[in-house]
Specification:
The complex is a heterodimer of chains A (114) and B (114). Chain A is mostly beta strands. Chain A is 0% helix and 51% strand. Classes of the chains: A mainly beta (114), B mainly beta (114).
Chain lengths: 114, 114
Amino acid sequence: NAGVTQTPKFQVLKTGQSMTLQCAQDMNHNSMYWYRQDPGMGLRLIYYSASEGTTDKGEVPNGYNVSRLNKREFSLRLESAAPSQTSVYFCASSEHWVGNQPQHFGDGTRLSIL
Amino acid sequence: GENVEQHPSTLSVQEGDSAVIKCTYSDSASNYFPWYKQELGKRPQLIIDIRSNVGEKKDQRIAVTLNKTAKHFSLHITETQPEDSAVYFCAASLDGGSQGNLIFGKGTKLSVKP
């Protein structure tokens, strides 16, 4: 099992460009999450999907959109990239949103916006 | 909403010594407290977690203690080894509802000197 797979691993964008970060899990998990990690800031939740067909805002949703394409896939879109969105993005999944389930993370996407 | 504070931000120990990382949380209703280890350039990985009905949990050289009255929990690593060098994150969440997502501390960079 691959667990949680993120693509791409690295990306450089120019300000104003758009792109979509892809995430897929093969653990049959119901819940999926997108975080950003900045130096000294820990992990901050951007959006989450508690179950297939639902998405909700996290702590820092501005400038992002998400799509829960099916149970396996959860994508994050930057419509008009800004330098403040330079970060490492992690996707995670858990069996359920309730019940205090452990979250499993992907390897991350390192995104630089010039 | 929940707020998690983590101390210290950096910790340096000699190989074989013990290391202790402490976290405090603000929402007394939080009931799930995981710890993640993140090696340089890699994904966060769950190393141990504790639920509010338990005061202490051990797994080989790692232990977590929880004091619900004081709203703090700690990670204890005994007999540290160079491979324990990493950034450690604590987190807290409430089981489900609008507060069901993990809130992370800002991390502790642990360096174990041989």
